[in-house]
Design a protein that fits this description.
Layout (H helix, E strand, L loop, with lengths): L8 H14 L5 E2 L2 E3 L6 H6 L8 E6 L4 H5 L6 E5 L2 E2 L3 H9 L6 E8 L2 E8 L1 E2 L2 H8 L1 H9 L3 E5 L2 H7 L7 E6 L4 H4 L7 E5 L2 E2 L3 H10 L4 E7 L2 E7 L6
Antiparallel strand pairs: 1-8, 2-3, 3-4, 4-5, 4-6, 6-7, 9-10, 10-11, 11-12, 11-13, 13-14
């Protein structure tokens, strides 16, 4: 039918080796959320990086390998084990192929200067593995609305004093986007999409991707709960 499917040979070989050695496949885990899309010169310049390529970190998960190594939101990873980093998808694949408990060296642009850091790779939990598998669809669904989303972890619940809350946290809102025009703010909590409760960015993506437009969100803000209608195809 003219449909092709390909798996990068390095990934296939790595999976084969892991199955033969361990009987299962494990994936490396940094504990970061990548900014959607490859880094543009304009975006790099806004962070003070005048030349070179890299991937921008939108958020760092608490107690993750990245957090323990000193990475912060807004950092740009320039190199991974001596290799230049340029594409978000390739970086994600490279990290997934790293062995848990191994140590990797990264060069990061942080606070206006290059830094050399060593990260001890963690093991991706099952939920995190699913999150990375569907990260592209999650980013696409949220990006259409101008949102960057992050999981509502127990640590974040404790920080925000919302122990019994559920939903996903808004990490960033793109200026001029449908979300921005409706007054959504970083730190707001999306509790439901089209009247369906959600517990992860993947829940958000699944409902938003199959929903008829517009999309109805129930949002919890510092001023209380409210409903918001967003239209992904609406232009500023």
């Amino acid at each position: 039918m003219g449909i092709g499917f390909a798996v990068p040979i390095n990934m296939a070989v790595d999976i084969k080796d892991q199955l033969l050695t361990d009987g299962k496949v494990t994936r490396g885990y940094f504990g970061v959320m990548l900014n959607p899309g490859d880094l543009t010169p304009e975006m790099a310049s806004s962070f003070g990086l005048q030349s070179g390529t890299g991937v921008l970190l939108a958020d760092i998960l608490p107690d993750s390998p990245a957090a323990k190594a000193g990475l912060k939101a807004g950092d740009i990873i320039l190199e991974l084990n001596g290799n230049n980093v340029a594409e978000v998808n390739k970086f994600r694949q490279d990290v997934a192929r790293l062995r848990p408990n191994s140590k990797v060296k990264v060069v990061v642009f942080q606070d206006g200067r290059r830094k050399n850091l060593t990260i001890t790779i963690g093991t991706a939990p099952q939920d995190d593995t699913k999150a990375e598998d569907s990260s592209e669809s999650t980013e696409a669904a949220a990006q259409a609305l101008g949102l960057t989303l992050q999981p509502l972890t127990n640590e974040i619940k404790a920080q925000l004093r919302i122990k019994d809350a559920r939903g996903v946290l808004i990490g960033d809102v793109e200026p001029g986007s449908p979300a921005a025009r409706e007054g959504l703010q970083p730190g707001d909590l999306i509790e439901s999409v089209n009247r369906q409760a959600i517990d992860s960015p993947q829940d958000f993506a699944k409902i938003a991707a199959t929903a008829d437009k517009p999309i109805l969100l129930q949002v919890r803000t510092p001023k209380g709960r409210r409903f918001v209608i967003l239209r992904p195809d609406e232009q500023p």
